[in-house]
Write a structure and sequence with these properties.
two-stranded parallel sheet, alpha/beta, about 290 residues, single chain, globular
Length: about 290
């Protein structure tokens, strides 16, 4: 390296040092490299359980070896009941996490996977063996799916406490860490989070939709309290005509994209909003004197 090049290099290095020093000199001491870094506060994870959970419907199915699967066999354990299918991408994606979860809590947790009837039992068994599934696998029947609310999407998982009550439902691919937090909370083990309790108004079992005071995609803001009561009563007594065989309330909760139930509920709201309070069906006008 020639002298002129060395001088240039030394000049550049000195300039960079001065620039860095200048930056440090004018920086807030609290934010300097020597000061402890302030870590951003992490939000506490909140898991949610049903306040007054319903007992889980009986399974009445067999595993892939023909042995009966019963919730009586899981008494005292936490149960993760997973409805899935071999052709379902999100279902396949969560299998490694379920395997790990079953391994970690093998004496306290029972994972039961029920494949839909679109799968052939022989194919399901082959799939389970290939992927090293270490929990029980059976086939879901149509009546069983109906008992659990129709299973609107796959995967759908139900979390049961040690008393066999359904405390939560997850639709779609779920964060595996949430499953573990729920298991630990139900087992009374330490976990990084807190539990929030809610009233089931159809989020877990659609039969509880009649407890809901609001429905997805339904604007009740223009109704009086009395009219709102009437509207909710009609939503729970009138059936949706989309073919789902559910009430309007159940359909709105189960399938927020259903245009039929959305239109029907909007029509009911419109009808009631144009009825004067004193002449509403539940509050007839006073007789003329």
């Amino acid at each position: 390296m020639t002298r002129s090049i060395r001088q240039l290099a030394l000049y550049v290095a000195a300039a960079m040092f001065v620039a860095a020093g200048c930056h440090s000199t004018h920086a807030d001491p609290k934010k300097s490299a020597l000061a402890p870094k302030q870590e951003p506060a992490q939000e506490e994870t909140i898991i949610r359980f049903v306040k007054n959970p319903d007992p889980a419907p009986a399974l009445d199915v067999s595993d892939l070896d023909g042995k009966p699967i019963s919730l009586d066999q899981t008494k005292g354990k936490i149960v993760l009941l997973n409805f899935w299918a071999t052709w379902c991408g999100p279902c396949r994606a969560e299998i490694p996490d379920l395997i790990e979860l079953q391994t970690k809590y093998k004496d306290q947790l029972a994972i039961i996977a029920l494949a839909t009837d679109e799968d052939e039992p022989a194919e399901v068994k082959k799939f389970a063996q290939k992927h090293g599934i270490n929990y029980r696998v059976g086939m879901a029947t149509d009546p069983l799916r109906a008992k659990y609310g129709g299973i609107p999407a796959l995967p759908t998982s139900f979390i049961l406490d040690a008393q066999g009550r359904v405390v939560q439902r997850h639709i779609g691919l779920n964060d595996p860490s949430i499953y573990e937090l729920e298991v630990r909370a139900l087992l009374g083990l330490p976990f990084d989070g807190k539990v929030d309790y809610f009233e089931d108004t159809g989020q877990v079992f659609l039969k509880n939709a009649d407890k809901a005071t609001e429905l997805p995609g339904v604007d009740l803001s223009k109704l009086t309290p009395a009219q709102k009561t009437i509207a909710l009563r009609r939503f729970n007594s009138e059936s949706c005509t989309c073919g789902c065989q559910m009430t309007l309330a159940q359909c709105r909760i189960n399938d927020t994209g259903c245009g039929v139930s959305k239109q029907m509920t909007a029509k009911i709201v419109s009808e009631l909003s144009h009825i004067p309070e004193k002449t509403s069906p539940e509050q007839p006008a006073a007789p003329q004197k």
